[in-house]
Amino acid sequence: MYTSDTQIRVRYAETDQMNVVYYGNYAQYFEVGRVEAIRQLGLSYKDMEASGVIMPVVEFTAKYLRPARYDDLLTVRTTLKDCPVDHRITFHQEVYNQEGKLLTTGKVSLYFLKKDTMARTGIPDYLAEKLAPYF
Amino acid sequence: MYTSDTQIRVRYAETDQMNVVYYGNYAQYFEVGRVEAIRQLGLSYKDMEASGVIMPVVEFTAKYLRPARYDDLLTVRTTLKDCPVDHRITFHQEVYNQEGKLLTTGKVSLYFLKKDTMARTGIPDYLAEKLAPYF
Amino acid sequence: MYTSDTQIRVRYAETDQMNVVYYGNYAQYFEVGRVEAIRQLGLSYKDMEASGVIMPVVEFTAKYLRPARYDDLLTVRTTLKDCPVDHRITFHQEVYNQEGKLLTTGKVSLYFLKKDTMARTGIPDYLAEKLAPYF
Amino acid sequence: MYTSDTQIRVRYAETDQMNVVYYGNYAQYFEVGRVEAIRQLGLSYKDMEASGVIMPVVEFTAKYLRPARYDDLLTVRTTLKDCPVDHRITFHQEVYNQEGKLLTTGKVSLYFLKKDTMARTGIPDYLAEKLAPYF
């Protein structure tokens, strides 16, 4: 299992008139969590794209337990429970506020695609190598 | 069953550097679909809030089958398969492009809450009455 | 002078906890206004990009006179006071609510650039021809 | 003069299909810059709102010199050139990338308003005191 934490400060723009973070904005928080999880492995998603592999989202689920509020300092926890064995990778994601309360849980699945042909491909070797010690 | 269609033109801001609509933006498209579904019943969500009932999202799922692209004229189809019997309401949502291709499917559950106390409440009578003929 | 009107319904996502539209979202409203202004000429910005000309924004100003609110049906008025004579085009933009109140004024300047080289270029002939009758 | 720097990592969601940060998203970057400028004084905008003073934006200008790109680590520099003497406060804002290149300059003016009456008010004493040493 590989787990990574990253912090995000809630922006004013991300609130709505219900005085909470708009439900759609968690997709961005989860994205930041995934990108930082990859960076903490010593890689970068930006470099992955540059080297020819893109990772579009194919499935997204979220449960909203408690609201996040303006200026909250959130912790986004991103977990890989399994090392991907084919073109699909699934991240489990949780958002906590500064009091340690669990606000949101989610699961995001992405495909590995070759950027030039959009054909499915396996997990890149450099990513598999970095993940191997955790599984 | 109650079904409603509404159209949305994809904005440049909604694309990302993968040349498709960012996956998080479908939450907004689904929101517009739900709001217009209520408006087509002769009600408005704005008035519901003003009369004391808010509807926060508690669960969200989406499957991304095909990408939406800049300037696409999308049809958002919003369906209630069951009339809500308690504080929870679930919308089934689909997004089609101008060629009739199904791009995205989703399901969004919301709670009816009293705005002043944030306590769960049932579906408002005026909404239940408007929906009754469809079930 | 060329003027075009288009309508936009304020989305819940576009409000913030001040119960008004977040100031940054007017950039999207103005974008929609410009794109529809071009469409009303019988062209499309999407096709312009496909034919090799992109139009990045180089300058943006906005004055916020009155707030827009959730579910408002806004009119975005987009005006070209002068036909562009070089690589720069400037749109004057106004946002009105459904009561005819002027909410926001703005001015957005963009460059015509060749997509492949990012070099400045003049206004495309097909756009100049469509605009000519108005000046 | 009071100057504050804060860093922002560009999110995938903030790019558009021109492969750069969408021009409207700088409003959020500038907002983060202002909020962190206030935090670095030992105050918080969140507390200001809670104590009854809100600060809506009344004017916004930006010049886009060079594009920001996905995953750039931006520095947002926020400067008060003058201490506000009435209900208006003006921030000068600059965005640099990780190579020290100036990407964007802007100016944002806000009003101090009483939250309950929306009447204009002067700068709160606690903010004026914190700023006094810099002018």
Describe the structure.
The structure is a homotetramer of 135-residue chains. By secondary structure, the first copy, chain A, is α+β, with helices and mostly antiparallel strands. The first copy, chain A, has one domain (2-134): Thiol Ester Dehydrase, Chain A, CATH 3.10.129. Chain A has helices spanning 26-39, 45-50, 125-131; strands at residues 2-9, 53-54, 57-64, 73-80, 88-96, 102-111, 113-114. In chain A, the strands form two sheets. Chain A has a five-stranded antiparallel sheet, covered by helices on one side. In chain A, strands 2-7 form a two-stranded antiparallel ribbon. In chain A, strand 4 (73-80) and strand 5 form a beta hairpin. The longest helix of chain A is centred in the N-terminal third of the chain and has 14 residues, at 26-39. The mean pLDDT of chain A is 97. Chains in contact: A-B, A-C, A-D, B-C, B-D, C-D. Chain A binds chain B through residues 18, 20, 22-28, 31, 54, 56-64, 67, and chain B through 18, 20, 22-28, 31, 54, 56-64, 67. Strand 3 of chain A pairs antiparallel with strand 3 of chain B.
Cross-sheet strand order for the largest sheet of chain A: 1-4-5-6-3
User: How is the CATH topology of chain A named?
Assistant: Thiol Ester Dehydrase, Chain A
Q: Regarding CATH, which class of chain A?
A: Alpha Beta
Overall body shape of chain A:
elongated
Extract low-pLDDT stretches of chain A.
none
The main sheet of chain A comes to:
5 strands, antiparallel
Helicity range of the residues of chain A? 10-25%
